[in-house]
Design brief:
single chain; about 575 residues; alpha/beta; seven-stranded mixed beta sheet; Rossmann fold; Nitrilase/N-carbamoyl-D-aminoacid amidohydrolase
């Protein structure tokens, strides 16, 4: 057997990088590389921009940051021996490139520059990076390995196909692929298709962890030339995943499949465009008793979304140095879900809940809130707001004279509660968690400087229907009664006036969420939504509320992105704007 066809043992270093923490990220990379070498791997692949974290945003405009990244890379390279490590980093040259560094024998031996820069959704890479010009192949122990970075394989065609046609038996893909619900399996199916199309094995290494609004789910994988998953890393956890790839099987399949030969001839004629990064030999990475590696099972849909919320909250709190969090617990589904996520992310000892009843709060909601806090084992503060409400009424009596009580008095209650939570934050260093969901935020059913006051909004991108779904799922996993059943069965209410119900002001949530999914996430207009069987009157009312609440959403805290169109990074509309979706129907 030629070295070219020998089995290759490799590792995927799925790590949780912190943006800007160059030294800590480098230590993780060095430790994972050392472990991979001890496990007999010849190659270890790390995520896109693993050295500096993703996305570094305008840090990439700072020369000092770029220079520090390069100095850290050189220091890291000096620690890499006996194995080849491929590490994502920002390369400063004639311009700035999203690059992969090949580290071996104590030095940086080569680099590859990302060729396809995404500039849609949450991505803004054209703002920061120059486009790489050439595909690249590295020879390792006689085997040819094509290098790609994230979007390079999402686009069918070069550079991935060029590298495969030029002889690469394995494509290494460094990725920072942000999570949205359902994406992990969609992405894995895409990678399997790329492997089959080019008759090539794929080693995909994804980032994991939370970074501001974004969550990275990991689920790195090694896929063979038939599209079969040989190894899969877990979701939402750091992991070093090892696998052995039968490169001889890749070569044999290409001999049997003559359909690629014409394309190979064309690629050879254009071979001047391929960067050959040289040849490296290691003493590791030989034959293993079996091909493949450990395969973690993908999470179910509710488990996946819930894990994304837990990961995003945990990393936002920990990476920003907060000791704990505080949640205003109302006895409703939204604050209950946030409290559950907080405890699962941080532990009960780092979560404080505050019950802040007013004259309109029912005994049932308050008792349910206290019971939930007890079941979770968190510290509970009971702060009556009747006194502050009377003080505000007295203070504003003259200014409000002759006017009936209305939303102004209702919102004062929310703002009193917001002030109390912020006072606790100032005194104890706790991060205030905002409990509003995407349905409410979409239509502005929230109070500026009241229930919107806080530092982080974990369920900001979760529609109301999903709140119930996640709450039921979490209760089922508890193996016993954790959430008082009345919390999920009670009609939603803000309890800011007597007998108030959310549906007094909004369409029923089931209908509202369908309209919002179409208008907010799919950019459908009135006519298109009506053709889906949605009542025109409710569609027009909902769209008017969404459009009128843009100024509120701009002042909302960051929250965890779990959809393809989250407020903030994804959906960007002007506040001052006279266009209405109803115009499209004229």
């Amino acid at each position: 057997m030629s070295m070219r066809d020998a089995p290759l043992r490799l590792a995927l270093g799925q790590l949780n990088a912190t943006v800007g923490d160059l030294d800590a990220n480098a230590r993780k990379i060095a430790d994972m590389a050392a472990t991979a070498r001890q496990e007999g791997a010849a190659l270890v692949v790390f995520p896109e921009l693993a050295l500096c974290g993703y996305p570094p945003e305008d840090l990439l405009l700072k020369p000092g940051f770029l220079d520090a990244a390069r100095a850290t890379l050189d220091e890291l390279a000096a620690q890499i021996t006996g194995i080849v490590a491929v590490v994502g980093f920002p390369e400063r040259a004639d311009d700035v490139y999203n690059a992969a560094a090949v580290l071996a024998d104590g030095r940086v031996v080569a680099t590859y520059r990302k060729m396809f820069l995404p500039n849609y959704g949450v991505f803004d890479e054209h703002r920061y990076f120059q486009i790489g010009e050439r595909p690249a192949i590295l020879e390792l122990n006689g085997a040819e390995i094509g290098l790609t970075i994230c979007e390079d394989v999402w686009k069918p065609g070069p550079p991935a196909t060029s590298e495969a046609l030029a002889g690469a038996q394995l494509l290494a893909n460094l990725s920072a692929s942000p999570y949205h619900a359902g994406k992990p399996l969609e992405r894995e199916r895409m990678l399997a298709q790329r492997a089959r199309d080019s008759v090539v094995a794929v080693a995909f290494c994804n980032l994991v962890g939370g970074q501001d609004e974004l969550v990275f789910d990991g689920m790195s994988a090694v896929i063979d030339e038939r599209g079969e998953v040989l190894a899969r890393a877990p979701q939402f956890d750091e992991a070093l995943t090892l696998a052995t790839v039968d490169l001889g099987a890749v070569a044999a399949e290409r001999l049997r499949d003559a359909s690629h030969r014409e394309a190979v001839r064309r690629e050879r004629s254009n071979g001047a465009g391929m960067a050959r990064l040289g040849s490296i030999e290691t003493s590791e990475g030989g034959a293993s008793p079996n091909t493949g590696g450990e395969r973690a099972e993908p999470l179910g849909f509710e488990a996946e979304v819930y894990a994304a919320l837990v990961t995003g909250l945990r990393d936002y709190v920990d990476k920003n140095g907060f000791d704990g969090v505080v949640v205003g617990l109302s006895g409703g589904v939204d604050s209950s879900l946030v409290a559950l996520v907080a405890v699962d992310a941080l532990g009960a000892d780092r979560v404080t809940c505050a019950v802040m009843p007013s004259r309109y709060s029912s005994e049932g909601t308050q008792e349910d809130a206290r019971t939930l806090a007890h079941n979770l084992g968190v510290r509970l503060l009971d702060l009556e707001i009747e006194g502050p409400m009377r003080a505000y009424d007295d203070l504003l009596a003259e200014a409000f004279a002759g006017r009936e009580p209305d939303i102004a008095e209702e919102n004062l209650q929310a703002r009193i509660r917001g002030n109390l939570l912020m006072a606790l934050s100032n005194k104890f260093g706790w991060l205030v968690l905002v409990t509003g969901n995407k349905s409410e935020l979409s239509v502005g059913y929230s109070t500026l400087y009241g229930d919107m006051a806080g530092g982080f909004a974990p369920i900001k991108d979760v529609f109301k229907g999903w709140v119930y779904r996640l709450l039921r799922w979490r209760e089922e996993t508890a193996g016993g009664e954790l959430v008082p059943p009345e919390i999920a069965s009670r009609a939603p209410t803000a309890e800011l006036r007597p007998d108030q119900r959310d549906e007094d002001s909004l369409p029923p949530y089931e209908l509202l969420d369908r309209i919002l999914a179409g208008y907010v996430e799919e950019d459908l207009d009135v006519a298109q939504l009506e053709r889906q069987g949605l009542p025109r009157e409710e569609v027009e009312r909902t769209i008017a509320m969404v459009d009128g609440a843009e100024h509120k959403r701009r002042q909302a805290p960051p929250g965890i992105r779990i959809s393809t169109k989250a407020f903030g990074r994804d959906r960007r509309l002007p506040i001052t704007n006279r266009y209405s979706a109803g115009m499209a129907a004229r």
